[in-house]
Amino acid sequence: MDFRAVFYCGFAYKYCMTYLAVFDWNATLLDDMDATHKGTNACLEFFDRPTITREQEQELFTFPLIHFYEKMGVNAATYLERAEEAGEVFSSVYREEKKTCGLKTGAEDVLKWLTAQGVQCIVLSNYLQPFLSEDVTAYGIADYFHTISGNTDPATLVAGLSKQKRLEEFVEQNGFERDKTFIIGDSHEEPELAKRMGIMGISISGGLLSKERLKTYAADYVVDELPELKAILHKEWALEI
Fold it and tell me: Is the bond preceding 130 in cis, omega lying within 30 degrees of 0?
């Protein structure tokens, strides 16, 4: 390779990686909806509320978490007063159940394919940063990501979310164009964020929202499995399959 090209890529890296793929973690790359559901029911029991089925959770779940628990009959004042304890209850159950969870079908193959195509990949999650970094590394896929970005403040899970702010900063700092960026996730967050930022939004079923609910948020695409991304990106970005 020409030395000038090496120099250019080394010191102006942001211009060498044209496309950006933004992945949620839970129920997007990690197949952990069962663990999440058991953690949710443990929290409902903590608040003396009836447990729900996985299908009910997919029809009722929303962010911020305070609104979901209000739907479940927990008043806002009670939730705010006991949110930290509830978080510990959820985390304890979730992390135990997660031990049997694997990656979503085709996850590593898709990441390998994107990397080979010169697409930069990042993880953007509401999961707390220490746990997120630990998990992505433990599942053996950390090397595919330029950045693994989780929540650093548990309070944002209660009162609001920081995903958009973190992604806007990353896109700006690294010179990515919004029409060459996509985000994929399992909730209403991703299509709503995509619309606000002017990027491609892709929803994946099997997570926090049912497929029918995902469709109501009008993402650019709704998929059932990660390998479906290849055909979408071949169409949108002319990537080779």
Answer: no
